[in-house]
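Budget justification aside, the reviewers requested a transparent look at the raw inputs and outputs of the sequence design task funded under Objective 1. We therefore reproduce one unedited record. The lines immediately below are the C-alpha cells for a 175-residue chain.
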C-alpha cells in the first residue's frame, strides 16, 4: 500500500504519548523502551489494535564540527566548505547529537481487543501507572501508519533527552 504525505501528516498530528517513560535516553548506554501502541482499525467498530514491542535507543554520540564537516559536506559547494571551516575554528558554535534507534520487530506482538478506544486507553494507562517499568510507553496512534507514530514517539524522546545528555557530558568534561 502506498501512503501519501497527508497520511504521514495525519499520523503526526494524531499521535499522542499517553504514558511517557519516566527515564530518558541513557547518556552512556543503550536504552530499551517498551511500548504499547493503541489504534483503531478503520473497518471495525469498538475495536482496538494493540501493538507491543521494544524500541532500542543507542548511546547518543556527539559529532564534532570536524567530523560533521567531513561526513555531511559531500556534494555541497564552496560556501558550505567555508561554513565547515568556520565551524572547525569555532568548536563551541555547534554541537550535533546523533541518536540511533532500532525497532525490533522480533519483539512485536499484536492483539485485537473488543472495547472502545477511549476505554482501552484509560484501562491500559491505569495498568501502566501501577507498574514499575520506567521505560514503558503508551501511545495512541493511527492504525495504517502506526510505524510513523513510533517515529514521532522516538523524536519526542530525543527532544526530551538531549538536554540531559549534554549536561551529563559537560559534568564529565566531555564537551
Amino acid at each position: 500500500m502506498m501512503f501519501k504525505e497527508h497520511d504521514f501528516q495525519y499520523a503526526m498530528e494524531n499521535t499522542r504519548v499517553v504514558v511517557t517513560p519516566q527515564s530518558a535516553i541513557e547518556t552512556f548506554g543503550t536504552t530499551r523502551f517498551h511500548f504499547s501502541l493503541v489504534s483503531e482499525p478503520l473497518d471495525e467498530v469498538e475495536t482496538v489494535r494493540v501493538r507491543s514491542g521494544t524500541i532500542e535507543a543507542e548511546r547518543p554520540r556527539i559529532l564534532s564540527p570536524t567530523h560533521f564537516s567531513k561526513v555531511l559536506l559531500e556534494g555541497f559547494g564552496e560556501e558550505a566548505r567555508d561554513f565547515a571551516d568556520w565551524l572547525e575554528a569555532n568548536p563551541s558554535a555547534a554541537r550535533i547529537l546523533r541518536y540511533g534507534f532500532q525497532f525490533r520487530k522480533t519483539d512485536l506482538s499484536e492483539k485485537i481487543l473488543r472495547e472502545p478506544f477511549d476505554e482501552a486507553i484509560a484501562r491500559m494507562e491505569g495498568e501502566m501507572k501501577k507498574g514499575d517499568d520506567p521505560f514503558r510507553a503508551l501511545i495512541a496512534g493511527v492504525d495504517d501508519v502506526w510505524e510513523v507514530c513510533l517515529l514521532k514517539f522516538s523524536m519526542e524522546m530525543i527532544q526530551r533527552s538531549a538536554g540531559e545528555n549534554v549536561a551529563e557530558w559537560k559534568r564529565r568534561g566531555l564537551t
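The longest strand covers residues 101-113. The CA atoms of residues 22 and 132 lie 10 Å apart. Computational costs for records of this kind are itemized in the attached budget.
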